[in-house]
User: What shape does this take?
Amino acid sequence: MPAIRVAAVQLMPSTVQESLDRAVEFIRLAHQDRASVVCLPEAWFHHNPLAEIKDMTASYGIIMRKLSDAARKYRMWIIAGGLYSPDGPSVVVPVISPGGDVTGLQEKVHLYRSEKTIFKHGKVFKVFDIDGVKAGILVCHDIVYPESARTLALKGAELIFNPSRIVTDGTIPWRRYLEVRCLENRLPIIAPNIILPNLYGGRSSILTVREIRGGVGIVETLSEGGDREEILLADIDLEEPSRMRSERLSSRVHEAYEI
Assistant: This one.
């Protein structure tokens, strides 16, 4: 597949029901704009989910049923963002097909601060077939660790989704992580964040890499969010990053890397 049209949802969470209704509306808009894949942020379903963890894990089934219905209705792939699964409990990102089926599940590997006292962490980074594209998912804080994205690149990922929940003061370093992971692995990244005034800063983005004169690789912003609810759309070319990634990874000197 030479290109894929993706959507990233920057949502303002409130209650579970209201947030879910808003998410489905954004999925409808993504379908209307001809996206084949839509990605939600981490913990988009409530304004303060960790404070009501039992209710949040109890809502997992309700959220999944409604998202599966939306996937079937709009014939779209849905990257469900970081949900709170009662299994563990754990932070998981279900991959939902246009038929409404869950075809994969990525657990959050690197839990952030107080999350470590609540959730069970994931143990492996997986590659999923999403609309004919090999894709990996790094959940929020996973993007901080360079091994995470490199593992996905070495496993054959063609792009990365990074559903996140980043506070306002963290959006600048978050952007730096996204740019570096995109550049060092030659991988496009779709990174949605939530927005809550004076707390969570939005600034979602869709990034890719391209080559300029002299074979220099640069990061290109295909779409960038502001400080309001919105949906980001982009057509991502996969051929040029694939060629650049193959060349870069083939130049690695394996015997020089020590643990």
